[in-house]
Structures are given as structure tokens and as C-alpha cells.
Design a protein that fits this description.
Elements: H1 23-33, H2 52-58, H3 60-65, H4 81-93, E1 97-101, H5 104-117, E2 125-129, H6 134-143, E3 146-150, E4 154-155, E5 160-161, H7 166-174, E6 183-187, E7 194-195, H8 198-207, E8 212-215, E9 239-242, H9 244-247, E10 255-259, H10 265-279, H11 286-300, H12 303-323, E11 327-328, E12 341-342, E13 346-350, H13 358-369, E14 375-376, E15 380-384, H14 393-401, H15 409-417, H16 432-437, E16 440-444, H17 445-448, E17 457-460, E18 464-467, H18 475-486, E19 491-493, E20 502-506
Parallel strand pairs: 2-3, 2-6, 6-8, 8-9
Antiparallel strand pairs: 1-10, 4-5, 7-12, 9-10, 11-13, 13-15, 14-15, 16-20, 17-18, 17-19
Helix pairs in contact: 1-4, 1-11, 4-11, 5-6, 5-10, 7-8, 12-14
The structure holds pyridoxal-5'-phosphate.
Length: about 500
């Protein structure tokens, strides 16, 4: 069966299009345009007769560009277009080497943890920000890492956590005593756009002889405009996780991992490459790869588009401030010593100050007004405005100001404000990996005190793991989990039993 050529009016064949610097995406479009008989995978064979519903749903161009790996002229052989796109991405992000990932920044975190496992002795600890994304906790299990933690700063009022200051990292490293860390893992920016002092943190990690991994999942646009924060990699991070699909403009689930130029690069590169091969599909999606190529080029050559989006975000913040009903959460960030800068493309709105419960506001805005915010906590909602996006600010403002006052919101907000300090995690009785692989049993929560947890448990808000597999469950932790679960909207993620009557412990 012969697949048809691309339609003559396909934008992919636009001869008038300026010469682009997206080698893989261009090669894929050329490949898709060839007159071929496809007897290979994917099984839809890009044939609209064989897969009419798929073709009607996604369009025929997309099917033609959905091709398997290891094709000459695309990703096979010396100097192939994919290799060239990877090199361009590394240059754009200031990396020694970049990997394109098709399973999100989650994959990047697991690769980073596996790579750290290969450094030094097995028993050497890794110091990680306690609020690490669950994919890094999974990496701790996969790599058999011995974790020690450093707590981020917490805003009890908004129920959110920020980052780690160099002083807090120094203290956490000093607490190791004679143990030498094999790596440090931190997050910047936060979900709310709080940017840490990465240069200072890199200095502290390096003084301790450890490479610094920065999970910059939410900062893939950093460094591409003078009004954006600098990229963590250019500030001394040795490894940087980039969830390009978040604010970098690629398709969902595509991401990058970047290796810096620092002194750890030689030893890290083969470890990452090995972990990448373990974690990447042998059928990586050509569509996701092409989207990464195009997103990188758009970031690199998109100064004006980025400026437009920053201006739009500034306008949204200004109009909210002038409206007088709601406040901007990041206006209070100077109270936190770990926050060195703020991502201007995040607009965080304190809706509780205007008498609305965060999750209710987000739901109403979506359902009633078609206005989609990224995140809600009890007190606030956060908008992300990616480079190139200029939203209809008037519509957002009108929808916000039309939110009805919620009589219960004040009580909910008080409950969040009363969260208080997080309980100290219990001692690590066994490696998280050992606890994860051992048989577990569910026991009544009172009987779980003093036992070793089989699960990771995080009370929301603020969503920081209170217990990890291998840690002893303490009375203080149980009290906190129960307290948060009892607040309006509060819950414990990871618990076998959502009512918290039982917890899962190592048998
Ligand atoms: C800090 C952080 N790291 C990693 C991830 C995982 O990213 P992805 O969804 O691309 O797998 C997330 C997801 O929200 C995140 O917030």
C-alpha cells in the first residue's frame, strides 16, 4: 500500500518559509513527504485507508510524521539531524550535552537519581530538597540512594513551599558529619515561580565535593530573555532537569536533561547516558522529538514573543492589584531569604483575600468562564503564561471579579493559616529501596507509630512528603497527617487508606 504525499498546501512544505534551524523537525517533515510503502511500525502505516479514524481525528500529516527510530536521514548515522538538534539544544541551554526525553521531567529525575547512584560508594548519602517531586523519590528507590533531606521554606498562610537557601544547604551538609555527600538535589523555580540562589547553592555543594542537580522543570524558559531569571545551568548547576512541555512550548510529555560544563561532567556523562538508555523507550516518539527541536528554536529566537508574554503577565498582575479585591502572592516573596528572584511568567493570585476558596475559584473559572488556571491551593490560584502566549487579560479579570464570595472561605483559610511547622521526618531505618521491595501490611494508624513506612505520605497542603518508605512513623508525624486531613480540602497523598484509619508498614 502506498502512502500519499503530504498535501500540496501542507505548511510543512511551504517553500517560502524562512530557512529554519530545526534539523530534526525539518528532516522529519521531508521524510513524511516521501512517497513510501510502509511495512514497518507504527502499524497505522500513515495510511488513511488503513486507519481512517486516526487520520480523520489527527490529520494525515501527523500520521506521516509518526515514524519509528533508527531511520537514515533522521536519527541514524554520523551527524544525523537528531544528533544535530541535540547539539543545538545543548548550545542553546549552555550544556555540554543534552538528552531529549519522551517521558517528561519525571524521566529526567529518575535518570538523575540513577546517575548519582553511580558516583562514589553506595553508602554515601545524597542531600535532597524534601519537597522533591515524586519522580525523584522514585529515583531514590530505583537507585538505592541513601537520602538526607533539607527542608524548603514554607509559607504557612498560603500553604505553599518555596526553595532552599545556601545557608540551609550548608547546615544540612554540616549535619552529615564525617559522611561525604555524593550529590545535592534541589528545585528551582518552585511551582509558584520562586527562584533560588542557584549560584550560591552550587558553591556550597561544590565546596562539599558534590555535584548539584537542579530540577528546573518549571524554568525551561529561563535564560532566554534578559527579564527572565538566568538558567540554573549557567549559574553552576551540574545537571538540569527541564520540563520543556511546561513553559518551553513543546508537546506534553517531552522534556530535556542537560549536563553542565563543570568538573563533574566527565564522570556524570557516561552514567547519565547509561541511565538514559535504561529509561527511554526504544520507540521514542518522533512527534515529541520534533516538538522539542521546534520549542528550542522558538525559545532561542523568540525574544519578542517572550517580551510580549512578560508584558501580558505584568498587565494581569497590575490590573489585579488595581482591582483591589485580590492580592498577588509573589508580592510577599521578599519575606523569604531563599527566594532570590521571581519568574515573571507566573501570576499567583491570593483569592482568599477576596473571599474565595482557591479550589472553588479554579473550578468556577474553568466551568463557568472557560478560564483555566494551572494550580490551586486553599488560598490561591496560579496562572502560567508561557513564552509567546498573550491571554485575553480583560476576560480573565472580568471572570475573577465575578467570583462569588464564599462564606466558608475565611474559615478554610484560617485552618490553612494554622498549619504551623512541619513535623521532623522520622529516622531512616532502612533504605527507601529496601522498604519498597519488602512485603508490607496495613495496620491501624495508632499501631503504625514506631513501625517502618512502606509508603511515601504527603499531607496537602503544603504537599511535602512527611514520610518516605524506610522512615519510622512517629507520633508527631501521625498527629500532623491527621490534622491536615481534617482541614477543609486537606488530604494525604500516597496513603493506602484515604480515611487514614490504616497505614502501610514494612512487615
Ligand atoms: C518540580 C517538578 N519536577 C518534575 C516534574 C515532572 O514533570 P513531568 O510532568 O514533565 O514528568 C514536575 C511536575 O509537575 C515538577 O513539578
Amino acid at each position: 500500500m502506498t502512502t500519499a504525499l503530504l498535501h500540496a498546501d501542507s505548511p510543512l512544505l511551504d517553500a517560502a518559509a524562512p530557512v529554519s534551524s530545526t534539523p530534526y523537525a525539518d528532516a522529519l517533515a521531508r521524510y513524511a513527504a516521501r512517497d513510501t510503502v510502509r511495512l514497518n511500525v507504527p502499524g497505522h502505516a500513515a495510511d488513511p485507508d488503513a486507519a481512517p479514524r486516526l487520520a480523520a481525528y489527527f490529520g494525515e500529516d501527523l500520521l506521516r510524521m509518526d515514524v519509528p527510530p533508527l531511520l537514515a536521514g533522521l536519527d541514524k548515522g554520523e551527524g544525523n539531524p537528531l544528533a544535530e538538534s541535540l547539539r543545538l539544544a545543548a548550545d542553546a541551554f549552555g550544556a555540554r550535552r543534552t538528552w531529549f526525553l519522551t517521558n517528561g521531567a519525571s524521566q529526567a529525575n529518575r535518570i538523575a537519581a540513577l546517575a548519582l547512584a553511580g558516583l562514589g560508594d553506595a553508602a554515601q548519602p545524597v542531600v535532597a530538597q524534601r519537597s522533591a517531586h515524586s519522580s525523584f523519590s522514585d529515583g531514590i528507590i530505583l537507585g538505592g540512594l541513601s537520602p538526607r533531606f533539607v527542608q524548603p521554606s514554607i509559607d504557612g498562610w498560603f500553604g505553599i513551599n518555596h526553595g532552599v537557601s545556601p545557608a540551609a544547604l550548608r547546615d544540612a551538609l554540616a549535619a552529615l558529619g564525617d559522611e561525604k555527600p555524593k550529590g545535592v538535589y534541589l528545585i528551582s523555580p518552585s511551582y509558584f515561580g520562586a527562584v533560588a540562589d542557584v549560584a550560591g547553592l552550587a558553591e556550597v555543594a561544590h565546596e562539599a565535593g558534590a555535584p548539584l542537580v537542579v530540577d528546573a522543570a518549571w524554568g525551561s524558559h529561563f535564560g532566554f530573555h534578559e527579564d527572565l531569571p538566568e538558567s540554573p545551568l549557567r549559574l553552576g548547576a551540574d545537571l538540569m532537569v527541564s520540563s520543556i512541555h511546561k513553559l518551553g512550548g513543546s508537546l506534553t510529555q517531552s522534556a530535556m536533561l542537560h549536563l553542565g560544563h563543570g568538573t563533574f561532567a566527565d564522570v556524570l556523562e557516561p552514567l547519565i547516558d547509561r541511565a538514559f538508555k535504561l529509561a527511554q523507550s526504544t520507540s521514542e516518539s518522533s512527534l515529541l522529538l520534533a516538538s522539542l527541536d521546534i520549542a528550542r528554536d522558538s525559545l532561542q529566537n523568540g525574544r519578542d514573543r517572550i517580551a510580549m508574554s512578560i508584558a501580558a503577565a505584568d498587565e494581569l498582575r497590575d490590573r489585579i492589584r488595581r482591582g483591589g479585591r485580590f492580592r498577588i502572592v509573589s508580592d510577599t516573596f521578599d519575606r523569604f531569604e531563599d527566594i532570590a528572584a521571581v519568574d515573571p511568567l507566573r501570576v499567583s493570585i491570593d483569592v482568599a483575600s477576596g473571599g474565595v476558596h482557591g479550589p472553588t475559584a479554579r473550578e468556577l473559572l474553568m466551568e463557568r468562564d472557560g478560564v483555566y488556571f494551572e494550580i490551586a491551593t486553599e488560598t490561591c490560584i496560579v496562572a502560567v503564561i508561557a513564552p509567546g502566549v498573550v491571554p485575553d487579560i480583560g476576560r480573565v479579570i472580568d471572570a475573577l471579579h465575578a467570583l462569588p464570595v464564599d462564606a466558608d472561605a475565611a474559615a478554610d483559610v484560617d485552618a490553612v493559616g494554622a498549619l504551623g511547622a512541619l513535623p521532623a521526618p522520622g529516622p531512616l531505618a532502612m533504605l527507601p529501596r529496601d522498604a519498597f521491595l519488602r512485603a508490607a501490611e496495613a495496620v491501624p494508624i495508632e499501631d503504625a507509630i514506631g513501625r517502618v513506612s512502606a509508603d511515601a505520605l504527603a499531607a496537602y497542603p503544603p504537599g511535602i512528603p512527611n514520610v518516605l518508605p524506610g522512615e519510622v512513623i512517629t507520633e508527631e508525624v501521625v498527629r500532623f497527617l491527621r490534622h491536615v486531613a481534617a482541614t477543609p480540602g486537606g488530604y494525604v497523598r500516597g496513603a493506602v487508606d484515604p480515611t487514614l484509619a490504616t497505614l502501610s508498614v514494612v512487615r
